[in-house]
Amino acid sequence: MLSTLIRTIVVLATLAFLTVLAWPAIAGLQNSWVIAHAVSFRGLAVAVAIALLSLLAILLLLVRPLRATTALLMVLLVIFGAVNSGILLHRGLGSDAAAALAAEPTDAAVTVLSWNTLGDAPGAAAIADLALAEEADVLTLPETTEETGVLIAEAMRAAGRPMWVHTVSFDLISKARSTTLLISPDLGDYTVTSAAGSGPPGNTNVLPTVIAEPVDGAGPTIIAVHAVAPIRWEMANWRSDLDWLAEQCSGGSSGGDGVIMAGDFNATIDHFAGRATSDGAVLGDCRDAAAATGSGGVGTWPAWAPALLGAPIDHVLATPDWRVERMRVIGTEDTAGSDHRPVVATLSPATE
Q: φ and ψ at 266, to 5 degrees?
């Protein structure tokens, strides 16, 4: 009797654990320590489930008294792997067919390149070359200093694509405490409205976010995002950062031509759960360009891991004022020095 009770407890505990890992929002645990990390790596979860199934298959063959329990655990792992695989397929694995929703962007389209550079690691020349190759109008560069931003702008100007540089730094001790935003003059004049000091209501808590608004009110508010990572002692700041970013991506508060925000959110779509304020949005009123183009399951961190095993924590988001034309995770810069992959998206005004 005791043995049966223990086995029942083991199976039920495993069911509860796997359910929370597969869909933590069902229990409101998507922003909890450990669970937040585990749900970031759905591809890895599938791989781990397959490995555990192999071990349980051996146990099934060798230990006769545990066969019923082992078989139940295997069924649960199969379901767990299938659910995670289904979610990844639904969000998209970045096929070429899904990467572009339109044959050609409109004349008013804006191309946004975002790359956490790990403290200027790739170098100004490499970043500028990538921006020029992608014909970027906006660069959001977390962990990039003003000095490097100026060098990037100079290189792009020499190539016929000038940029204005806007940097917010919380201090000059760590490069991670700087975020740089480059905007093409073709989009008009912009001014930084986010506070230079950390914490709401003026900025994210630990790492700076740059908010730039058009001087004449014509054009989108552009936000270069850097939320803190959900490490154990920063969980409260991380949750606060996501709440604050959701407020910034509000159609009601942005005015003008809506909001485009991009950068290192240190969060996947799962972590955004509960922070959407309109249908189809994932954060505030903003929609995710990767999810719209079938690339939402492609990992952007860490760059050294296969993309399908990584965490998609770098995003390009926009309010419904903007229509996603193209989006992709760039996999050609994995050895450039950063631990993040760049992402690039092209957006057009929804009214065109």
A: 50, 35
User: Cα(291)–Cα(287) distance, rounded to whole angstroms?
Assistant: 8
* Backbone torsion region of residue 105, taken as left when φ is above 0, otherwise alpha when ψ lies between -120 and 50, otherwise beta: beta
> How far is Cα 71 from Cα 140, in angstroms, rounded to an integer?
49
Final residue before a domain boundary, out of 53, 73, 91? 91
| Count of residues in the chain | 352
- For the chain, the straight-line distance linking the first and the last C-alpha, in angstroms and rounded, comes to 70
Cα(143)–Cα(268) distance, integer angstroms: 19
pLDDT per position as a tens digit, 150-201: 999 999 999 999 999 999 999 999 999 999 999 999 999 999 999 888 888 9
Question: How far apart are the C-alpha atoms of 302 and 313, rounded to whole Å?
Answer: 10
Token pair, residue 352, equals 């065109």
Backbone φ and ψ of 136, nearest 5°: -70, 140
Residue 138 corresponds to which amino acid? V
Q: What are the tens digits of pLDDT across the range 307-335?
A: 999 999 999 999 999 999 999 999 999 99
Taking each helix axis from N to C terminus, what angle separates 67-91 and 42-62, rounded to the nearest 10 degrees? Answer: 160
Same domain? 86 vs 219 = no
Residues 205 and 188 reside in one and the same domain? yes
Kindly state the tokens that stand for 337: 């020095």
